[in-house]
């Protein structure tokens, strides 16, 4: 058992172009920033007095906080992983439980730190880097047999959802299976309906992570353009066993991305976003209550059950787990108060001590073998006492005798009659089973007789006709909505072309020609001029998957009207430029990989050629030694030594190029995942926009 406090780190988000700091953090006059690895780092926030508050101002100017390490605005993702996540991952591989969670206000960089960005390969967060590190170590260690599973839980508005359920293809969060909390008598938490997916390598684990990220709740708020509106817990379950050993080690690593707190009075959100903000702030309030209770000594009750998040993270906050917290800070002037609150919360978390235990248990299969051996010994002792060797099953003669005894017992009307089969547990069990079968058979025969007298009133044809009519009405309503949306889009495109033509004619020909052009445009109201613009970028649409909601309603085919609307929506979408850039970068990486592959083949051919020359040289020297032996033939052959040195250099070059090719393969796979994620986001955005247009038309 190891007792250690929760490790707390801080990461400062870089400022935007229009943002300014409220004071000084770290160095400078009155500030101190110490990042020595052997000692705690200090963060000091200095807020000068504001003259608007008056000359008599008793507000505190300086705030100082202690952290394990502070990452400034220039720190890269790989440095954060090596300092924070790598030690936790090593302890998980050794058999201990681990947790890493990020805490801070909305827009302070929690999701970027945990999951990473979708723009560059170097922006990968803690989760993909941890998966890569774990699977690389599992491949290197051949002394144990490892099994790895992953799960992805989302807590949205105090309801849990399984983001990796394979039986559901959900287009909305409400379509995912809900996860409920169950507690056993030992107060261990179990999550019902949360699936564990087997991941045998890094590629499968990243695919599951990408599947879960596409189903997360993301919305635009005044504080963040892509704010996560839910708490997400990505868990890696690892079990290991040495061959021939009866001990199994089971460990798990929670990687938690908490939703950010926000002040409603500052952001001014309303409606659905306001409801989400209420649930987020409430769950974070309950988390702070648990932290305060754990920090107090001699506290008898810890309020874990107040929220689902604190219930799931019970072991991580005050149990058997190595826990690490990342406090994300934004030193923008308007966010400095929330950053100070985050630092205060981190100082309370640093006071908590967890008792970490190595998770080992006995293999159940070994227990089964031991119990079977004990049963066989008891059977031998029983046969020695009774003088009869009992088998596991009754003979056919014994079964016939028992059937006759049971039939006689059931036909006997005497209430005092008994069924005596001796002190044999096999015969007693058979008698109970036989009586149960006879009772069930008689009950089924009675129900069959009753069902024959009941009238059958089912009109299958009428129900089928009503169902078909309902489907046709739905298809007709969908076509009407598509026509109305396309008409509105045509009007907008026509208005744009008219305005452009109006400005061109006014600059060249004057007022008279302007009036003529206006009348000409009004006469040509039926011109299909905007149809060409709707089909400009059709090459990219062929690579986009069919939209789920359109596939369900139209039998797997997208209508022509919906395709044209999707082309216009895709052309104006903000992610289109990023998709094209990623496609160009992916094409470059494929070309580099192909070029490296050709070079590898050339180097391999040269190595084989040199090896053949060395063998030929040895054969020639052996033949000379047989025909004309001399002392010169026993000396070192300089030509052969030169050929061997050339072959060693070629092998070294081959290893370097092969390592480079392997790195290119990992980068290409990651870029492909990023493109799939952006395409899925584009599809979801179009689905939301299309549904909203249909609702507006109905209203």
From TrEMBL:
<feature type="binding site">
    <location>
        <begin position="104"/>
        <end position="111"/>
    </location>
    <ligand>
        <name>ATP</name>
    </ligand>
</feature>
<dbReference type="InterPro" id="IPR056524">
    <property type="entry name" value="KIF6/9_C"/>
</dbReference>
<keyword id="KW-0206">Cytoskeleton</keyword>
<dbReference type="GO" id="GO:0005524">
    <property type="term" value="F:ATP binding"/>
</dbReference>
<dbReference type="GO" id="GO:0005874">
    <property type="term" value="C:microtubule"/>
</dbReference>
<dbReference type="InterPro" id="IPR027640">
    <property type="entry name" value="Kinesin-like_fam"/>
</dbReference>
<dbReference type="InterPro" id="IPR019821">
    <property type="entry name" value="Kinesin_motor_CS"/>
</dbReference>
<keyword id="KW-0547">Nucleotide-binding</keyword>
<dbReference type="GO" id="GO:0008017">
    <property type="term" value="F:microtubule binding"/>
</dbReference>
<keyword id="KW-0505">Motor protein</keyword>
<dbReference type="GO" id="GO:0007018">
    <property type="term" value="P:microtubule-based movement"/>
</dbReference>
<keyword id="KW-0067">ATP-binding</keyword>
<dbReference type="InterPro" id="IPR001752">
    <property type="entry name" value="Kinesin_motor_dom"/>
</dbReference>
<dbReference type="Pfam" id="PF23735">
    <property type="entry name" value="KIF9"/>
</dbReference>
<protein>
    <recommendedName>
        <fullName>Kinesin-like protein</fullName>
    </recommendedName>
</protein>
<comment type="similarity">
    <text>Belongs to the TRAFAC class myosin-kinesin ATPase superfamily. Kinesin family.</text>
</comment>
<keyword id="KW-0493">Microtubule</keyword>
<dbReference type="InterPro" id="IPR036961">
    <property type="entry name" value="Kinesin_motor_dom_sf"/>
</dbReference>
<dbReference type="GO" id="GO:0003777">
    <property type="term" value="F:microtubule motor activity"/>
</dbReference>
<keyword id="KW-0963">Cytoplasm</keyword>
<dbReference type="InterPro" id="IPR027417">
    <property type="entry name" value="P-loop_NTPase"/>
</dbReference>
<feature type="domain" description="Kinesin motor">
    <location>
        <begin position="5"/>
        <end position="352"/>
    </location>
</feature>
<dbReference type="Pfam" id="PF00225">
    <property type="entry name" value="Kinesin"/>
</dbReference>
